[in-house]
Design brief:
Shape: globular
CATH class: Alpha Beta
Largest sheet: 7 strands, mixed
Strand content: 25-35%
Order of helices and strands: EEEHEEHEHHHEHEHEEE
Strand order of the largest sheet: 6-7-8-3-9-10-11
CATH superfamily: P-loop containing nucleotide triphosphate hydrolases
Helix content: 25-40%
Structural class: alpha/beta
Bound molecules: adenosine-5'-triphosphate, magnesium ion
Radius of gyration: 18 Å
CATH topology: Rossmann fold
CATH architecture: 3-Layer(aba) Sandwich
């Protein structure tokens, strides 16, 4: 029996974002549509100013669109008030930024505990969960180190531990390797692949073609729109073992509904919900 495709995790329909600065309007998103299904690993590429970070802010529920529909697990975000949005974000979404965005003086475990406090987790449980998340990213022996006592790659690992400690469904990363040397960047990509193989859905913005090539699907933006959407099966990508170790690209027409990785996967990742 054919398997049904994994459920959409996020659905974006005809999204626009206009920044108004005095009398000047910047049309950062111009009616963009995108579906990402549970278990996908998507790279978003495009020239500077094409709207990638704006889109990530929308996907991450950090900012509201000017118009259009955005659903997370079928739930329409535009109907939610501030608190409900924050709850949805805390539950479903983790964020990683280029510059790590860690607190300057806090030790690693404290950085990772913070989102748990906001989610109302007890101090004891938060400590245990933070420790586990840091262990997962290979920093089990750096719990008490402050950012200045960690390498760039280790700081990014702390940021990733902080992003995954709530066990979100979706990890968003905006240029996660942009501030790292290539060897350290490679370690972060390997970690992403591990997390992806454990069921996390990933959306990564990058300028680096080598970083994009690690994803299963590459979405290209230009002037606030999607102009390319390619699903690839690559020996680099952390696809389930049943996928052959060859490289083929399957261009998808961008006017059609967004493609699914089901086309290239014999064994989709399980939902982490
Ligand atoms: N807060 C803001 N206020 C006004 N304009 C903004 C704001 N944020 C972004 N813009 C504008 O929106 C457009 C898209 O910006 P965005 O940051 O999404 O691009 P990007 O693709 O992430 O670029 P980069 O690759 O340089 O990070 C740009 O023209 C930018 O100047
Ligand atoms: Mg950006």
């Amino acid at each position: 029996m054919p398997q049904s495709p994994p459920h959409p995790l996020i659905e974006i329909i005809d999204l626009t974002k206009i920044y108004r600065m005095g009398t000047v309007e910047v049309h950062a998103l111009r009616g963009l549509s995108l579906t990402v299904r549970v278990g996908e690993y998507v790279a978003i590429v495009g020239a500077s100013g094409s709207g990638k970070s704006t889109l990530m802010n929308m996907i991450g529920l950090l900012d509201r669109p000017t118009s259009g529909v955005y659903r997370v697990r079928g739930q329409a975000s535009q109907k939610l008030d501030k608190k409900a949005l924050a709850d949805l974000r805390n539950r479903e979404i983790g964020f990683v930024f280029q510059r790590f965005n860690l607190l300057a003086r806090a030790p690693a475990r404290r950085q990772v505990e913070l989102p748990l406090f906001y989610a109302g987790v007890s101090a004891r449980k938060a400590r245990q969960m933070a420790q586990e998340a840091l262990k997962k990213v290979g920093l089990g022996d750096r719990l008490h180190h402050r950012p200045e006592e960690l390498s760039g790659g280790q700081q990014q690992r702390v940021a990733i531990a902080r992003a995954i400690v709530n066990q979100p469904s979706l990890l968003l990363a905006d240029e996660p390797t942009g501030a790292l040397d290539s060897h350290t960047g490679e370690e972060i990509l390997t970690l992403f692949e591990e997390l992806h193989s454990q069921g996390l859905t990933l959306v990564v913005v990058t300028h680096d073609p080598d970083v994009a090539a690690r994803a299963h699907r590459i979405v290209t933006m230009r002037d606030g729109l999607i102009v390319g959407d390619v699903t690839q099966v690559s020996s680099n990508a952390a696809a389930p073992a049943a996928v052959p170790a060859t490289t083929t690209s399957v261009p998808q027409p961008v006017s059609e509904p967004a493609p699914t990785i089901q086309q290239t996967r014999a064994n989709p990742c399980p939902s982490v919900s």
